[in-house]
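Pasting as-is:
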Amino acid sequence: MSVNTYFKPENTQPKVQVFTQDLDAGTIEEPPPYLSVVVPVYNEEDNIEPLYTELTAALEELDCTFEVVVVDDGSQDKSYIQLKKVYEHDPRWRILRLRRNFGQTAGLTAGFDAARGQVIVTIDADLQNDPRDIGKLLAKIDEGYDIASGWRMDRKESFLIRRLPSLLANRLISRTTHIQLHDYGCTLKAYRSEVVKNIRLYGELHRFIPAIASSMGVIVCEVPVNDRARRFGKSKYGIWRTFRVILDLITVSFMLRFSTKPLHIFGGLGFVLSSLGVLTAIYLAYVRLVLQEGINDRPLLLLAVLLIIVGVQMISMGLVAEMVMRVYYETGNRAIYAVRERMDQAFKG
C-alpha cells in the first residue's frame, strides 16, 4: 500500500517547537516533548494504518508537543514494515523493534525507557482504546494527579469470556492492593514520567503499575473512557490470562508489603512455628520428667521436632531474602528486553 494513501495529517510538525543550541558541539537539538505516547505492538499489521491516522489526528488537537514511541514486540507479520513507512513519513513516531516477543510488560518497559516526555500515555495498538480520550487523561494530570487510569465502563466484549473474569479480577486486586480502580486491565493510562521511570517491571506486572506505584505515595484517579470493538486482527488475551493475573497478584501483594523487609514475613512465620515447637517440646518434657510417662510413641514428639526445624528454616530463608533484596536494590539494573533495530532521530549513540 502506498504511503500517500493514508498518511495524510495536515501538519507533521509539533505545534510548538523551541530549539536549543549546544555551544560545545555546535549542533542544534530539539527539546524533549511534553507528551510521550507508548504503543506496544504485536502482530497488528492491519491496525497500523488506522492507528497512525487516528492517533496522530488526536494528538495534533492537543496544545502540546508530543512523540509516539512504538515498540514492535517481535511481530511475525508485516507490522514492522508498516511502522517503517510511518517513521519515514513522520519522525515524531519513534520505532523500537525487539528481538523477539518478550510480552506486553517488557514492551511497555522499553517504551518507558525510550520516552522523553514529562507525561507518558500508554495505549493499545488495536484501537479498542479511543485516542481522543487522551485529552481527558492529560486534564487529570494537569489537576495534580500522578496517574490517570482509563475505565472502560461500556466494554464491547463477551461477558463470560472477558468481562466477568475481568470484573472478578479487578475486585480481587482492589481488595488486595487497597487501590480502588474498576479497570486495571485498561492499557489507556497517563503517568507522570518520574513515576514509571522509577518502577522496575518484570513478568506480567504492567497492569499493576498503579498498585506498585502506590508505595511511592502517588495520587491515582480513574477516568471513564470509550471502548470499541476490535476491527482487525485477533485478540491476544484469553481466559487463561485470568489465572496468570491471580498469580501476579500474589507477587504484587508480597512486593507491596514485604519487598524491602522479607524477614518480617519469613522470620515472623518462622518464629511462630518455632515457638509452637518449643512449647510442644516443653509439654512433652513435663510429661516425661514429671508424670513419668513415655513419649516415644507420641505423634506430638515428631510434630515438635518438625515445627522447630521448619521454623529455623523459615528464619534462615528470611535472612537469605534480605541479602537478595539488598543485592537487587544496590546492583540490579538488568533490562527485560533486547532491541534489534531502532528508528529514532532522538536516539544518540
